[in-house]
Every structure is written in structure tokens, then in C-alpha cells.
Amino acid sequence: MATESTLRFGAQTDEVTSLLRIVNMVRTGEATTRPEIGRVTGLGRGVVAQRVDQAIEMGFLEDGAFGPSSGGRAPRTLRFRSEQGLIVICALGALHIHVGIADLDGAIIDQSHREWAIANGPAETLAAALAMADELLARGDGTPVWAVAVGLPGPVDFATGRPVAPPIMPGWNGFDVRRRFEQHFDAPVWVDNDVNILALGERARRRGEHADLIYCKIGSGIGAGLLSHGRIHRGANGAAGDIGHVRVAGSTLQCRCGKVGCLEAVAGGWALTRDAEAAIAEGATGMLASQAQAGDPPTPERIARAAEDGDALAISLIQGSARTMGESIAALVNMFNPGVIVIGGAIVSAGEVFLAEVRQRVYELSLPLATRDLAIVQSIDDPAEPLRGAVEMVQEQLFEVTFPRWFAESRPHTWLTSSTE
């Protein structure tokens, strides 16, 4: 451990700054040998050697294998010691809890999943999530938790980690989710809306491809994650992308949020379930009706699968949702001009039955320049995507925002996420 007098943050700022940069360069792969670090930073050989030795002494870096030779002696590579800490991820959905453990490089080490209703409330839900995380950690070797990520299926004030009037989460409004996890793990915690986390997962998968991206999730509810120049745009209070409660012209349908005519009340999964039940009650026939008579009532997933299998009622519902969604997405395209739109959620598992209608409406209603290079694609069907996106969020916040504040002490502290960034 380096001495406080030589590495205390705020003292010898140039030294600390260059040391931080070198650690992050090795961590991200920007430079992995001492000569590369010197070329990228412009620091002299002696200074680079000193900083690298300090980082090794602090436990952040270690020597790895020899790299390729450019004519002389082959340089030894450096590696970031990602195994020295763990990231805990809790992705909460409307009807499930997905928990994972990752190393500091973002590799998922272990994970578990269970069905759970978010409507059970924060106390029971968080207790269940923490128990699942503790069970995963107990299977490990005692490596300490360095950071925690929590995803919620509703609006979140990112600065405070508190949900704000989430329509499908009764009892959660203003609940201090962050503090509950901080007290349990004694590590910094970040809480975000689940669709922002999914957008970050797409960023990780498409590294270097598209810096401007929109992720639209159409499940029980509807939301959008906006990636601008590679960064999530959350807005002033974390409400950016909450398109599910944009008004649909001419609609008088009651939404779960209490308002009338919201997009979610017209095109969301719960709205399609409502409409399917009404149609079956009025005498509709087909796969969905047969399933309902057998005791399996319509759900967003069943409606999507039935549409893929050619059920007329399901196709009608899916295409209606897609047309309405296409109109809303077209407005985002005109304002935001993304390079790619990724559409995920239970409804989109209908595949081209849904996507074809969305594409048609977007191209009809958007400016030619905004759609010239636009791709509209379906998300990959991988339940681990929320975990990868949450890890991406933690890495961004931990190493780019809070890293300097606890660097000299070699591990994070919970009070950091409560302070003003």
C-alpha cells in the first residue's frame, strides 16, 4: 500500500492523475506495456516505470506475459487485476429477479434467476434480491464486493438512486434503494432504469459501431434508453426516454399511471393483454382463445408467440401495437437521429410481424436524412443482457467518476455515491 503522504488525493495532483490514467489505460487495453504507455502519455521512461511500480505496489496492476518484439527485447505486458474485487448486479423486473456476480473486467462469474412480482414492495423484494446475491457470494472465495448495480422497471432519479412514481411498482415511490444495498455490502451502489441498462448492454456488444443508439423496450410497459455519443442521456432528473407516457392522439384509454391516452395504454404488453381478453370474451376464436379456455390466459409472451404461429387475433394486436410504436419512434428519430434502434421486450419476440410494421411507420414519418443510414433491429434473446448492461454502468461510474476519490486507499467507499458528482 502506498503511503498517504505520497498518494493522498489532492496532494501531488499531477502524480496521482498520471497514475490513475495509467491504471485505466491498462484496464481498458489502450496501452498494455511500459513503452506503449510512454508513447501514449508522453511521459519519460523513468516516470512511467515509477508510476507502474506504484500501481503494482497498490495491487491494481501486475506484470503479465511478454509482448511481441519490435526488434529488441520483447516488452513485458501489464494486466489490470480484475479479480481483486467483485461487482454485484440485481436486475429487477416486473415479474422476476435476476442477480449476478462479475469481476472488475465485467465477466459474469455466476448468476441466478427467480420469478417474483415487483408489486410485493421494496422491503420483501430487496430482501429476496440480497439473499440471492449472498448465496452467489457464498459460493465464491471471499473476494470483496467493490460495487453494486441495481436495475428497476420504472423511472429512477439517478442522482439519488430512488424510484419516482413508478406505475407498476406500488410502494416504491421515493424508496432509498441505494442505501439498502450500501448498508448490506459496504460498497458504492448505482441504481438506474432497466431500459438505460439495456442500452448500455448494447453499447458493450457494439463497441465502436454506433455511438448514437436508441433501445426501445416493449414489454408490460414501454420505455427507451437514449445513447448519445456513447453516453446515456438521462435528462435533468433521470426521466429522459420515458416514452410510455407520451400522449397518443385521439386515445381515451385509461393508463396505469392515472392519465388518459398514454402510449403504454395503447401499445404496451398489458394493454394487448387487456384487448385480447376483451376480444375472447366477445367470441374471438383461434390459438389465444383456445389457450384461454384451457386455463392459460393471454400474456404478452403468449400473444407474441401466437402471432408468430399465425393466430389472427394475435397478429392484429401485434401489428396495431407496432404501428403506434412506429409513430412514436419516428418522432424520436427526427429529434435524435440515431444510427440504430434496438427493440426488445416480450412483445418484440413476435419478430418480423412486429418489426416490419415499425419500420414501415418510421420510414413513412421520419425525415429522409434521419433514416438514410438507420438500422432497426431486434435485441438478442439473452436473459443475461441486463447483467452485462449493469456491469457496463458500474464500470463507467466506478472507474471514470469515483475512482480518483478512493484510489489511494485501493477500494471504494459507500459515502462516495451519496455525494455530488
From TrEMBL:
<comment type="similarity">
    <text>Belongs to the ROK (NagC/XylR) family.</text>
</comment>
<dbReference type="Pfam" id="PF00480">
    <property type="entry name" value="ROK"/>
</dbReference>
<dbReference type="InterPro" id="IPR036388">
    <property type="entry name" value="WH-like_DNA-bd_sf"/>
</dbReference>
<dbReference type="InterPro" id="IPR036390">
    <property type="entry name" value="WH_DNA-bd_sf"/>
</dbReference>
<dbReference type="InterPro" id="IPR049874">
    <property type="entry name" value="ROK_cs"/>
</dbReference>
<dbReference type="InterPro" id="IPR000600">
    <property type="entry name" value="ROK"/>
</dbReference>
<protein>
    <submittedName>
        <fullName>ROK family protein</fullName>
    </submittedName>
</protein>
<dbReference type="InterPro" id="IPR043129">
    <property type="entry name" value="ATPase_NBD"/>
</dbReference>
